[in-house]
Specification:
Blueprint (H helix, E strand, L loop, with lengths): L4 H10 L3 H15 L4 H14 L7 H17 L2 H18 L2 H18 L2 H17 L3 H17 L3 H18 L2 H17 L3 H18 L2 H17 L3 H18 L2 H18 L2 H18 L2 H17 L3 H18 L2 H17 L3 H46 L5 H36 L15 H18 L3 E8 L2 H8 L1 H17 L6 E6 L2 E7 L3 H17 L13 E6 L7 H17 L5 E2 L5
Length: 611
């Protein structure tokens, strides 16, 4: 078990040896950084003074490692990077392995926060390799969480879950309750993106309980903010508001401007949803000011977007334009593509509001171009992350085999031969995948893949991408489900209410399909009143649950907003048969289930699960 603060302080008071004192101060800082930043700063300052003594060279590296972490938590990113990189160099020269791995993980955190995922992954993987080599389970668990959060961010949810569960198992094995709660939070993120809100709430509440028991104020604020995000998505905005308010109060007690700025921004989003736009604007501006004071330009960038959007909703179009243009300029300087996309989209709407169609069109075109670029980059990063995960797993298995060999020489020779072969295979596979990705990206044009009426993907896109998903499912043994959705009695809707009403029904059902999709799912118009839903990495039961939720949503929608006597339902057929030879047969199987649903009386999902 981790030592308590009281035990560490007692040991410090009795220790005179320089190396022992610095190592104890290093452990003390790990606790204080989460609950008392003022004392954490004092601890780092004491380490810096002691580390001036050349008798313990690694001491300077430990002090700089913690100073870099402190700057990171304060939002001073340039200072953080400089300290961490210098610390890594010192600790490597001194042969201080544990401190070196901790610094590698810290640099992974830094580059992840910056949005430089390939660089972050590089540091996490090096930390993972080193921690396994020296059997440092605490450091290994942190590296596993780091790789997992990158896989999650890139949409590889199954891979992310695998890394988070391994990290959780290690942390429970060594009794590290403090960081165990952080991994529970990470798992909650995956549940949230997969649409399992009750599961996410359970994980966040379990994490919150641990954080409170251990006095981790920063973790408590993060867990409360995460609960606020879940309830915001559930449409329970007042509850979300309460959680964000609690998080803000804790952040204020903690004395962390970085955490306080994030909580202010989340609280502003809840007020904006409730229609309290003036209050939301005040919170966004306060958050922006804190980010500016800390030099956190990415945080400041996010708040400029919220400020501009809120001013637009308040019909202060000129002020909104100024805020968004300032944010756009900052986004162009910093380089992240997603904020650039969001600023161009927001400016397009504001210029439309100002009746300046030429400027609105310009920003819309810029947004479309960036969106295309982002799609290509995300696919490339996703592929690279999956390949890296494969290589790490292969290396882990090989290392386990090697430990069982009889002699060190034989083990070393075999490991070298396998490593060279593995590297050749991985590089060849990576080259093939990236070449294929470039060829596909050139062929894909957004307007050519979109149905003009519903703005969903069209049948051509469905055929192309379902084929790829089916092949990946076969290759990696992932589940793949597909649903065929048909609007019941659609011809009667056209005949009775007019084709215009029919078109409105198609558009609204399409919107419901799209909003029902997770990040990895996609919906397409198959033809007429028939649609297709593709659920990668989802088994039959998961797909049936999602489709039943969609069916209920369509049935319960207030269709009288289109016509007083209009009622709309859908029938859905789902298939998840891994034995089928190709994706066309998978589509045909879903179609058979659709017609079974219609024969059974319509307004239902087939196959029906009993028991």
């Amino acid at each position: 078990m981790n030592p308590t603060l009281q035990a560490l302080e007692a040991q410090l008071s009795q220790t005179q040896a320089l190396s022992e004192k610095l190592e104890l101060l290093d452990q003390l800082y790990q606790f204080l950084r989460l609950s008392d930043l003022h004392r954490a700063k004092e601890t780092v300052e004491e380490m810096l003074i002691l580390s001036q003594n050349p008798a313990y060279p690694a001491g300077r590296g430990l002090a700089l490692k913690n100073l870099g972490d402190f700057h990171f938590r304060q939002g001073n990113l340039p200072a953080s990077q400089g300290c961490l990189e210098e610390a890594l160099a010192i600790l490597r020269r001194a042969g201080e392995v544990k401190g070196e791995i901790d610094t590698l993980n810290a640099l992974g955190n830094f580059y992840y926060f910056q949005g430089t995922f390939p660089k972050a992954l590089e540091y996490y993987l090096e930390a993972l390799e080193q921690s396994r080599k020296y059997e440092l389970k605490a450091q290994e668990s942190h590296a596993l969480s780091g790789v997992g959060i990158i896989q999650y961010t890139l949409g590889n949810y199954q891979e992310a879950t695998k890394y988070f569960l391994r990290s959780l198992a290690l942390k429970r094995e060594i009794g590290d309750r403090l960081t165990e709660s952080g991994t529970l939070n990470n798992l909650g993120l995956v549940y949230l993106e997969m649409g399992d809100y009750p599961g996410a709430v359970q994980l966040y509440r379990e994490s919150l309980e641990i954080k409170r028991a251990l006095g981790d104020l920063q973790g408590e604020a993060n867990a409360l903010s995460n609960l606020g995000v879940v309830f915001q998505r559930l449409g329970r905005t007042q509850e979300a508001l309460d959680y964000h308010q609690q998080a803000l109060e804790i952040a204020s007690r903690l004395g962390s401007p970085q955490v306080r700025a994030t909580c202010l921004e989340n609280l502003g989003l809840s007020h904006a949803t409730l229609g309290n736009l003036e209050k939301a604007l005040e919170l966004f501006q306060a958050s922006k000011n804190l980010y500016q004071e800390q030099g956190n330009r990415l945080g400041e960038l996010s708040t400029w977007l919220q400020i501009g959007a809120t001013l637009g909703h308040l019909e202060q179009a000129e002020a909104a334009t100024l805020a968004l243009q300032k944010g756009l300029k900052m986004a162009e300087e910093l380089g992240p593509q997603k904020p650039l996309l969001e600023f161009h989209q927001a400016l397009s709407k504001v210029f439309e509001q100002l009746h300046k169609p030429a400027l609105a069109l310009y920003h819309l075109k810029q947004a479309i171009e960036i969106e295309r670029r982002l799609h290509k980059e995300q696919q490339a990063q996703k592929t690279a992350a999956l390949l890296a995960g494969f290589q790490v797993e292969k290396a882990r298995q090989e290392a386990e085999i090697e430990r069982l060999r009889n002699t060190e020489l034989a083990r070393a020779n075999r490991e070298l031969a396998r490593a060279i072969e593995s590297l050749k295979e991985a590089n060849a596979e990576k080259t093939r995948l990236l070449d294929k990705l470039r060829q596909q990206s050139k062929e894909l044009e957004r307007l050519a893949r979109q149905d003009p009426l519903t703005r969903l993907y069209n049948r051509r896109y469905l055929e192309e991408n379902l084929g790829r998903e089916f092949a990946a499912s076969k290759r990696y043994n992932f589940p793949l489900s597909i649903a065929m959705v048909d609007i019941d009695h659609f011809k009667q809707i056209n005949d009775r209410f007019s084709h215009q009403v029919g078109d409105d029904v198609l558009r609204l059902v399409a919107q419901m399909l799209e909003s029902n999709c997770r990040g990895v799912d996609f919906a397409a118009r198959y033809g007429g009143e028939e649609f297709a839903l593709v659920f990668p990495q989802t088994d039959l039961l998961g797909a049936l649950v999602a489709c039943e939720r969609l069916r209920q949503r369509v049935e319960s929608y207030d269709w009288s907003t289109i016509h007083p006597h209009l009622k709309v339902t859908v029938s859905i057929g789902v298939s998840n048969d891994p034995t089928l030879s190709d994706h066309e047969k998978l589509l045909a199987a879903a179609d058979e289930q659709l017609y079974a649903a219609k024969r059974a009386g319509r307004n239902r999902v087939f196959p029906q699960v009993t028991g």
